[in-house]
């Protein structure tokens, strides 16, 4: 860790200027130091992260979690949710390849994570592509995800739908700057 901290302190985003100039640290070195601190904390804890993710990105999500020091568990069967989800440190739900068989498991896992006071992430992939996707996501938003990870169009579509449907989504409204 000391070697990593030394490397972080010596990051120089402007190669034209020397890295040992006196003065306050710049924003990039502060962000780099914070990133290393958070990554080190994840690696020390090795959290168990349950992933209910789309088939396209399942191996990518697992490999990213492994590389960051977490332990991924790609558990999506509703028959395992009650036993497994409360034991996980976090939950990630990605609706990319949404299917009627997985929606109840997503809802049960989100509810279990909420009841166990575990953080969970909702990734509303292409939420506005169909009313089925939107309805599934609105039901998941009611279970108060810790983070909603999406691109601008996904967040805006979900935020607008939440305001229209009356779902409690003040975090979405604040995130997008809409009132």
Automatic annotation (TrEMBL):
Keywords: ATP-binding, Kinase, Magnesium, Metal-binding, Nucleotide-binding, Thiamine biosynthesis, Transferase
Residue span of region Disordered: 1-26
Cofactor field: Mg(2+)
GO molecular function: ATP binding; hydroxyethylthiazole kinase activity; magnesium ion binding
Enzyme Commission number(s): 2.7.1.50
Native source species: Rhynchospora pubera
InterPro entries from the UniProt entry: Hyethyz_kinase, Ribokinase-like
One Pfam family cited in the UniProt record for this chain: HK
Protein name per the record: hydroxyethylthiazole kinase
Primary enzyme class: transferase
Domain of life of the native organism: Eukaryota
Catalytic activity: 5-(2-hydroxyethyl)-4-methylthiazole + ATP = 4-methyl-5-(2-phosphooxyethyl)-thiazole + ADP + H(+)
Keyword DNA damage in annotation: no
Keyword Nucleotide-binding included in the entry's annotation: yes
GO biological process: thiamine biosynthetic process
Pathway stated in the Swiss-Prot or TrEMBL entry: Cofactor biosynthesis; thiamine diphosphate biosynthesis; 4-methyl-5-(2-phosphoethyl)-thiazole from 5-(2-hydroxyethyl)-4-methylthiazole: step 1/1
């Amino acid at each position: 860790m000391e070697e990593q901290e030394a490397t972080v302190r010596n990051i120089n985003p402007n190669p034209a200027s020397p890295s040992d100039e006196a003065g306050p640290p710049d924003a990039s070195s502060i962000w780099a130091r914070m990133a290393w601190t958070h990554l080190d904390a994840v690696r020390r804890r090795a959290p168990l992260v349950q992933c209910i993710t789309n088939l396209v990105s399942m191996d990518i999500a697992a490999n990213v979690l492994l590389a960051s020091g977490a332990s991924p568990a790609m558990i999506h069967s509703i028959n395992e949710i009650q036993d497994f989800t409360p034991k996980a440190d976090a939950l990630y739900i990605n609706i990319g390849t949404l299917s009627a068989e997985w929606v109840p498991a997503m809802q049960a896992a989100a509810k279990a994570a909420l009841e166990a006071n575990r953080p969970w992430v909702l990734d509303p992939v292409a939420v506005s592509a169909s009313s089925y996707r939107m309805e599934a996501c609105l039901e998941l938003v009611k279970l108060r995800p810790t983070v909603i990870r999406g691109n601008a169009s996904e967040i805006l579509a979900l935020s607008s739908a939440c305001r229209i449907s009356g779902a409690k989504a003040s975090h979405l409204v604040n995130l997008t700057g809409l009132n």
